[in-house]
Structures are given as C-alpha cells and as structure tokens.
Design goal:
heterotrimer, A alpha+beta (about 120), B alpha/beta (about 160), C alpha+beta (about 350), B: about 160 residues, alpha/beta, Beta Polymerase, domain 2, 4 helices, C: alpha+beta, three-stranded antiparallel sheet, about 45% helix
Chain lengths: ~120, ~160, ~350
C-alpha cells in the first residue's frame, strides 16, 4: 500500500537494538588498518630525515645534530607517507585518534640521546 | 591513457567565429580556463562532441585584458565569465547575466590575476660549495629560469648524512 | 505587487554547504535568484605553485569531502596521461571499486539531505545509517572514512586481498537490502511523490543549453556519462547509462536511486574479476605537457586542466566541478517556483559548494 511504506521500516527499527554504538558504555570498535595518530619509536630511529622530506604538509621536523624528532599534530593528516618511507620501522599509525590536548601546544617533541 | 583531445591556438579576433562554428556542430561548452602567465592571460575554451574534446586557446595581453563574451552563443557561459572577471580581473564584454564582481565574495579581490613574471631564484648554497658550483656554471649555459642549475647545487649542499 | 528580497544561506538548515542566494520574491513566488559564492574558497588552484606535484594528490583529495576519492583519482590520471605512466590493471580495478564506493556513499548522503530538505527527518536518519556501513567498508580497506588517501600517481597505496574481499561482499549484500527498503519509500511514497512530481521541470533542450552534467542531464533524457569514455576498469565492466525522460525533481531522484544499485553491482563485479598483479609502478622525473582529464563524479562530469612545465610544481591546475556546471540550471529552475520549493530545488541538483569554489 503506497501510504504505509515508511511505517513498516519505522516499526522494524523501533523493535530492534539501536544501530549506534552506545558510547561511552561500549568502546568504539576499532577497525584494523584505520589511520589514526602517528607513533614514534626512538629505539630504531637513525635520524635520516626521510620522513620529513616526504611529509606532504611539512608536519615533521628532524634535527640530525640534536637528535630531535618534532611532529606538529595539527598539521599531520595521517596519510602514512612517513610510515611507508621509514627504512627503520620507527614510525607507525595507531588505529585510534589521539586524545585532545589541554594546552595550546600541538607539538610532540622527542629528544633522543645525543651521541 | 591520454584522452582524445585537440588544442588549437587562435587569434582573439577569430574567437566568436570559431565558437559559433562549434555551436553549429552541436558541441557543448565544457569549460573555460584562464591562466595568468607573465605579461598575458591565456584563455582556453573547451568544447565536447561525442566524447572528443576540442580546445581553443586565445591570448590576451594584461595591458588590455578585454574579451568578448560568448554568452550570445552559449548562454550558460555567464558563470565561467563572471568567475574569470572576479578572480583574474579580465574584462568580459557583453555577458548576458553580469554579476558586476559580486559573484565571488573574497577578501582579496582578483586573487589569481598576478601576471608578473616569477622572480629568478638565486642558486642555493652557492657560497658554501664553491667546488661544486664552478663546474656546473661552466658546463650548462645559465638562463634566468634555471631548473637545471638549481638541481645540481641542491644535492651538493645537503650536509653529508 | 511589491517585491521582497529574502536572503537564503549561507547558513540554512537544508543546505549542506554554504551558498548565498538572494531570492527576489513576489508574494511567495520567486522571480529571480542571485547567487553569491566564496564562503569556502580556499584558493587551492594557487597552492599548486607551492606543493610538489606528487604531494598535491593529498590537496586534490581535500577539495571536497563527499567526492574526495574521484578528485584524487582524476588528478592522478591526468598526471599519468602527461607522463605516459602505465598503471597496472589491478590498480585500475581497485580505483574503480573505491570510486564506486564513493558514489554509493555520496548518493546515500544526498538521499538523506533531500529527505531532510523536505522535512522527512526519519528517512534522513535511516539513509545515513546505511551510509555508515559503506563508510565502515571504506575505513577497513583504505584507512580513512571520508578522505581515503589511497590513490597515488602510478597506482594505489593499499590492496584489498583475501578475507577483506569476502567481508566486503557480505557487507554489500546487507547494504543492498537496506538500500532497497529506503529507496522504496523514496520512490513509492505518495507524500514524497506529491512534493517532487512536476516540480522544477527541465526539458531536454533546456538541459543541453544550460550546460548541465550528471544526473541532472540524465534525468532529462540525455544519455551522457563520462564513465563511457573508458578510464580505469570501466571498459571491462558492464555499465549502462541510466536515464529518465520527465526531467522533474522526481526523475532526478529516481536516477540517483537507480545509480545506487548500479554502483553496488559494479563493485561486486570488479571485486570478483580483479586480476592479480602489482598495485603501483615507480614514478621518476617531472611531468611536462598538458592534458584535460574528465571523469564522472557522483554529481556529474568533472574536468581537470593540468599544465606542467617540467619542474616539480605544476604551472596551472584548474578544476571545473559538476556543481559549477549545474548552477545555471539551478538558477533557471528557481525562477517562477514557490518559496517552499526552494530547498527541494536547490538539493535536487546535489550542490557541493566546496567543489565549486575550491
């Protein structure tokens, strides 16, 4: 009957569980392979600056002499170009978003040990 | 895979006649593209019939950027011509629906219409690597636009990694 | 009768993106609509002077959030045409799969907005609920929900293999079933028909003269679809052009609903027939030359004019998006309509103003 097309749909969904995730009681189901926040591991890094050169937005700055890796989180677009080009596997993308910051600082700065 | 297309450069005086010929053929207007080159504007009008693209290109000097409107032939061109005027400051004469510059609400008027030639970039790090710079200058004849010479000093100037 | 000017937009509950229209109204009938755009103008065409041509893919994708993948794909195809790069067949099929997924999510988004513009909020919610499933597939295969980041010059960056293909096919079955429920409401419901039938009629000759593209043109009886040109994997898939002849808002909705099912079928076929092989080729050197590349976005034909001069920055990059070509049709449709029909008519051309203004 052309007048009650939507009623059937509405009744069906009124009687089933809501399709939305009941956040925060349920955690958000993380999808593997999703591109989230950039994680830097200092152990393997050789400070070759390849990641900084390949970054399309210029969010990464690597200081070779000072052994410092700086990331501007607000500029990072999580494109994973740096992850693909790192020869030492010291960069990876987590599947979740980063937590909001409580200060005005958007930089993540890791000062390695100077040789 | 390069799509089927042709490009033809025509004088400004022949524009209306050629556009009329395209209309007679039954082609539809696809787009009008304006580019700001040093000293002139380059307008490309593209027409399409049965999936083959024909482009007509005219050059307009930036000292007198006036172009006749093609809206008498293709009525839908008014939006492209208003956009050309609002972004590039090209005066299009005789548009059927003329928004008088009010179409694009930008803070900087005529933002793309910069036709000054780009400043010649000095070769980087020429002072720190004199040994590398000398053979390059001798080998390649240098002109103002130098992508060739800019490449060589850059690799030499990179601190040894 | 005195005339009033009513400003419509840039912020309005029915508009997905900001456009300003000054409606000249005479007692509930709109006489004229004067557009004013520039609220989302980011000057992306000038950015090409600063960014490397290979990093520019990421900028091209971000011209629009709804049609983002096909922007990136057209840009890559343009540079590949200039540099004569042979893209491997598997990458072509993967681009087709993601392009059609992009079309499905865009049409579902539009369906929801159309319902919302008519006041039918529950259909809006249901349509976006189904769209969430599509976005989950996209996130599982590319890593991002809206901005895919998977196209690059020379191929694609990620592959869909084994279990991912099985899961995607299962999810597509559920999506097709739920989409059928929703489109049945849209096409069959009497109140929707009363609102859309006979409103905003564009005859075949008018549609051609006004330079329309995409579903707007196809709903007026013109069989034109850029996918027939034969880019990506479309020559190997069976694709028919969907047209209607009435040319009113109902016909435009029906064309988009039919395209939804066509896209789901194309995705299934591409996933099954995908050849094995590489997904990218290495690119060296700089582009030199120019090309005009056209593809079919969900809203119509997009034209990319790319001019390169042998350096790492392109000389000129120009995008003519489908909404830009459909705007004259929208302005013509608004002349003589009722004030209450303005949201329906604006949404019926599926405006994507971020695309229009770059």
């Amino acid at each position: 009957m052309p007048y009650f097309q939507m009623t059937r749909l509405a009744l069906k969904w009124a009687l089933t569980k809501p399709p939305t995730t009941q956040y925060p009681f349920e955690p958000r189901r993380a999808i593997a392979g999703s591109r989230g926040e950039l994680i830097f591991k200092r152990d393997n890094c050789a400070y070759c600056t390849l990641c900084a050169k390949r970054c399309p937005t210029g969010a990464i700055e690597v200081d070779r002499a000072q052994k410092r890796f700086t990331l501007d989180r607000l500029r990072c677009i999580s494109c994973a170009c740096c992850v693909e080009n790192c020869p030492r596997d010291s960069l990876s993308l987590s599947t979740g978003h980063g937590t909001p910051s409580t200060t005005m600082e958007s930089y993540f700065c890791d000062q390695g040990v100077k040789a | 895979m390069k799509p089927n297309q042709t490009l033809e450069i025509i004088p400004l005086a022949a524009l209306l006649e050629r556009v009329g010929a395209e209309r007679k053929r039954g082609a539809r207007l696809v787009q009008i593209c304006a580019t700001a080159l040093p000293g002139q504007f380059e307008l490309t009008y593209s027409f399409d019939i049965a999936d083959g693209l024909t482009s007509l290109r005219v050059h307009v000097p930036d000292s007198d950027p006036r172009v006749p409107s093609i809206t008498p032939i293709y009525a839908c061109a008014f939006l492209y011509e208003n956009e050309m005027h609002d972004l590039f400051k090209i005066k299009v004469e005789g548009i059927n629906v003329d928004f008088q510059g009010k179409l694009y609400n930008t803070t900087v008027k005529y933002a793309f219409g910069d036709t000054k030639p780009p400043a010649a970039k000095p070769p980087p790090a020429a002072a720190t690597t004199p040994k590398a710079a000398a053979p390059v200058a001798a080998a390649a004849p240098v002109t103002a636009a130098t992508p060739v010479t800019a490449a060589a000093p850059v690799t030499a100037a990179m601190p040894p990694n | 009768m005195a005339r009033t000017i009513i400003p419509f937009g840039p912020q309005h509950p029915v508009l997905p993106e900001p456009i300003h229209l000054d409606l000249v109204v005479e007692d509930e009938k709109v006489i004229e609509a004067r557009p004013s755009i520039g609220f989302v103008h980011r000057g992306l065409e000038k950015l090409v002077e600063k960014k490397d041509f290979s990093a520019f893919v990421y900028v091209a994708e971000r011209i629009c959030g709804i049609c983002s993948f096909i922007h990136g794909q057209t840009y890559c195809q343009g540079i590949e045409a200039i540099m004569d790069i042979p893209v491997p067949p598997r990458a072509q099929y993967l681009r087709t799969v993601w392009g059609e997924l992009s079309r499905v999510h865009s049409h579902l988004l539009w369906l929801g907005l159309m319902a919302d513009g008519m006041g039918f909020e529950s259909l809006f919610m249901h349509s976006w609920r189904v769209r969430e499933r599509v976005l989950n597939i996209i996130e599982a295969t590319t890593g991002g929900r809206v901005i895919f980041g998977s196209c690059k010059i020379g191929g694609v960056r990620r592959d869909i293999v084994g279990d991912a293909i099985k899961d995607t096919m299962a999810a597509l079955d559920i999506i097709e079933r739920e989409t059928r429920e929703i489109t049945q409401v849209f096409i069959g419901d009497n109140s929707v028909k009363k609102r859309l039938r006979g409103v905003g009629v564009l005859s075949r000759q008018e549609a051609l003269d006004l330079g329309c593209v995409g579903p707007v043109l196809r709903a007026s009886g013109v069989s034109q679809d850029m996918r027939q040109q034969g880019y990506a994997a479309y020559p190997q898939l069976d694709m028919q052009v969907i047209t209607r002849t009435e040319g009113d808002s109902y016909a435009r909705c029906a064309v988009r609903c039919d395209e939804l099912f066509q896209s789901l079928g194309l995705i299934r076929q591409a996933l099954v027939e995908m050849p094995a092989g590489e997904i990218e080729v290495k690119v060296t050197g700089f582009p030199n030359g120019e090309v005009i590349m056209r593809t079919e976005q969900p809203r119509g034909e997009v034209v990319y004019c790319i001019k390169a001069n042998g350096t790492k920055n392109l000389q000129r990059f120009r995008v003519r998006t489908p909404t830009f070509a459909n705007l004259p049709a929208m302005l013509k449709l608004l002349q003589g309509c009722d004030l209450a029909d303005v949201p329906v008519l604006v949404l019926t051309i599926d405006p994507c103003i971020s695309c229009t203004e770059r």
